[in-house]
């Protein structure tokens, strides 16, 4: 497997010609500055992007909702997808600053994509498509683009009656489906901070969970039950609920979301990624650690059980403990790891360019923290760095331009 070194994607105004500068190599991440928000330090963006009181403007897509305690005096800001703003990781002013910076980029991409697809979707090997996907697929076209380029649409059109039949069988089986109970248990844990998936209410001292009254959660339940029948070698594995839930947010129909899940798991991800053995997930971590050994040897020496080479360490000592963190990155495809907009930008590339994007993203995160990790001796502190820092990477645009 080849994982490219750090590259930058140009934001050229040229819509019609391939610009070789789009793929010009840049220095390694250790010498690059990626702006990410720190709860304790100012978020440094180019001041020319902002004007005075615009720091505090309310994005037109934000929805202000009361919290689930029923206290109407507490306002909760949400993004355009219904998620609570991650103010536990990034100060609200920094989120607003990024909104102001990023909105013109979104507007520009909207116009460019409309022009590109006006006569149909370009082929998947189109250089322009790859460049535009790296710059982000507009929300208006995202679900349809994922469906088309992943191949899920072709599968769905070839098997139009399969999903309804699987759902009918699942409903008839009820609790006889060995996965039904754990799927039901995981429903309310899937994006509880998203308006469309919310099912928990607090009244006085009583907490109530009502998944039956939430149409999105019922769609999620049907998808996961149908998938367990479609792919009995997997059945159900935690993390699949996040993938399916994410697809429900961007696909037009429940059936589209089902086929996106099937296609992603079987055509993109390694075999045995979610089965009982999780062999595919373990292989992924071996590959990632090999890349760390090759590209960031100083970090390998810090995180490995010995100072020996990768293969010696792998055979005798097992994988480094940080794979307990990085394995979760791959299983969830960075959902609940990176900010939502950053995850979306990764997925845009994933369905056009393929699985190598996962390794590029993981290696970028580790490289970005290499100087900090190099100063640490306590493995727990390294864990904390890799668990917490990704949640502050709100500048998805710059992150995608600094890929390893």
From TrEMBL:
Residues 1-30 are annotated as: Disordered. It comes from the Eukaryota. Residues 136-354 form the Rab-GAP TBC domain. Residues 12-22 have a biased composition (Acidic residues). One of its GO terms (molecular function) is GTPase activator activity. Pfam families: RabGAP-TBC (PF00566). Signal peptide: none annotated. InterPro entries: Rab-GAP-TBC_dom (IPR000195), Rab-GAP_TBC_sf (IPR035969), Rab_GAP_TBC_domain (IPR050302). This is Rab-GAP TBC domain-containing protein. It comes from Mucor circinelloides f. circinelloides (strain 1006PhL) (Mucormycosis agent).
């Amino acid at each position: 497997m080849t994982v490219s070194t750090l590259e930058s994607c140009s934001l050229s105004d040229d819509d019609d010609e391939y610009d070789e500068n789009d793929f010009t190599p840049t220095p390694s991440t250790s010498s690059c500055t990626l702006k990410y928000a720190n709860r304790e330090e100012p978020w440094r963006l180019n001041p020319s992007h902002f004007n005075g009181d615009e720091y505090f403007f309310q994005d037109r897509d934000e929805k202000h909702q009361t919290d689930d305690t029923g206290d109407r005096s507490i306002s909760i800001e949400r993004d355009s997808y219904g998620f609570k703003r991650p103010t536990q990781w990034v100060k609200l002013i920094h989120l607003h600053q990024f909104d102001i910076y990023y909105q013109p980029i979104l507007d520009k991409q909207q116009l460019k994509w409309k022009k590109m697809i006006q006569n149909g979707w370009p082929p998947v090997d189109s250089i322009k498509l790859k460049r535009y996907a790296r710059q982000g697929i507009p929300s208006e076209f995202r679900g349809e683009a994922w469906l088309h380029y992943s191949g899920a649409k072709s599968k769905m059109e070839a098997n139009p009656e399969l999903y309804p039949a699987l759902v009918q069988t699942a409903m008839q089986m009820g609790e006889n489906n060995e996965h039904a109970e754990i799927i039901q248990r995981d429903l309310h844990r899937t994006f509880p901070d998203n308006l469309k998936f919310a099912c928990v209410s607090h009244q006085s001292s009583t907490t109530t969970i009502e998944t039956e009254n939430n149409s999105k959660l019922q769609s999620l339940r049907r998808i996961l039950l149908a998938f367990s029948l479609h792919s009995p070698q997997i059945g159900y594995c935690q993390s699949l609920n996040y993938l399916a839930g994410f697809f429900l947010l961007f696909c037009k129909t429940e059936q589209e979301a089902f086929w996106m899940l099937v296609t992603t798991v079987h055509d993109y991800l390694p075999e045995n990624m979610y089965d009982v053995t999780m062999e595919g997930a373990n292989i992924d971590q071996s590959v990632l650690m090999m890349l760390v050994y090759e590209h960031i040897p100083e970090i390998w020496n810090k995180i490995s059980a010995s100072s020996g080479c990768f293969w010696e360490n792998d055979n005798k000592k097992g994988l480094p403990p940080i794979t307990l963190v990085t394995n979760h990155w791959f299983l969830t495809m960075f959902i609940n790891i990176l900010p939502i907009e950053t995850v979306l930008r990764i997925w845009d590339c994933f369905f056009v360019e393929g699985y190598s994007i996962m390794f590029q993203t993981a290696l970028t995160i580790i490289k970005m923290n290499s100087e900090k990790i190099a100063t640490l001796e306590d493995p727990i502190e390294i864990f904390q760095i890799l668990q917490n820092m990704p949640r502050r990477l709100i500048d998805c645009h710059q992150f995608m331009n600094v890929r390893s």
